[in-house]
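As promised in the previous annual report, we have extended the structural survey to additional targets. Below is the entry for RING-type E3 ubiquitin transferase.
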Amino acid sequence: MKVSSKTVRCLFYFMFIAELGASLNCTTSCGNRGVDIRFPFWIKDRQPDQCGYPGFALSCNEGDDIVVELPPAGKLHIEKIDYRNQVILASDPQRCLLRQHPNFNSSVFNIQFEMSKINFTIFNCSLNNTRPPNWMAPCLSTVNYDVLAVDSELSIEGKESLLSCTKMYDLPVPRDIRLSWSSPNCGSCEATGKQCRLRKNSITELETECYGWHRQDKGAFSFKYSVHCSVFIAPSFSFFYLVCI
Ligand SMILES: *[C@@H]1O[C@H](CO)[C@@H](O)[C@H](O)[C@H]1NC(C)=O
Ligand SMILES: *[C@@H]1O[C@H](CO)[C@@H](O)[C@H](O)[C@H]1NC(C)=O
Ligand SMILES: *[C@@H]1O[C@H](CO)[C@@H](O)[C@H](O)[C@H]1NC(C)=O
Ligand SMILES: *[C@@H]1O[C@H](CO)[C@@H](O)[C@H](O)[C@H]1NC(C)=O
Ligand SMILES: *[C@@H]1O[C@H](CO)[C@@H](O)[C@H](O)[C@H]1NC(C)=O
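The corresponding structure token record, generated without further manual editing, is:
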């Protein structure tokens, strides 16, 4: 059978479009906070599963914070993701780690804390919404009682907001929380300005591949291969030309 050049051009065109279609745009963020969320992370309610790697699901809260859930510790907020070194800097605004640290496990992350130099004093208080929000430990609080974590070196003389409180104990509080991961290993791919994704047709093995979307600083993408290709629509023909220079 003789294959016409028209058929070949059409096939080429369809393969080109198929390849573009297969490259899902998996880069997103929570609001406009500037922290890019991309593979191996994905936002589980907003993006398809193939945008991420198992164990790396994130979510966005009402305040556009990026939330990672590490049961039983609770929900940490992600401040920064260093894709090259495969490290997350996280914070614990709910102070859930007062309940759990430092002995909790995560299957995907290696967790490191830097404890604050000073202890915090934990108070159990009856409800009073005039207290400074940065003292609150919502994760330890209950419906009827607020739990506060107050810098132990702070003089509590005359601190009216502690009047209806009982001191519970002193505890160092984790300050810097670093979560690092070793698998999938995409740091070296990221270092070349490219990105990882799940290798197609290897659903069972969870292999990744480094692919050629070039990442620019503002999170935009441009197609960067060693050849530049354009698709031209020829008005008098029923097919498209793919021109490469
Ligand atoms: C962490 O996980 C390991 C293995 O699953 C388990 O043996 C260990 O008890 C866990 N540690 C804590 C503090 O949960
Ligand atoms: C913090 O509290 C622990 C336990 O109560 C105590 O052993 C430690 O010396 C305290 N550290 C500081 C800096 O006060
Ligand atoms: C705080 O005190 C109340 C009353 O004594 C008690 O019911 C509650 O369990 C305490 N909260 C904590 C976290 O210990
Ligand atoms: C709440 O705290 C303020 C001082 O910060 C105090 O004047 C007020 O009486 C407290 N209210 C209750 C219900 O304890
Ligand atoms: C992918 O989506 C993000 C966020 O919606 C956007 O900033 C970016 O420009 C998109 N990239 C491409 C190649 O469309």
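Residues 3 and 9 are 10 Å apart (CA to CA). The chain has three helices and 14 strands. These points will be discussed at the next consortium meeting with the crystallography subgroup.
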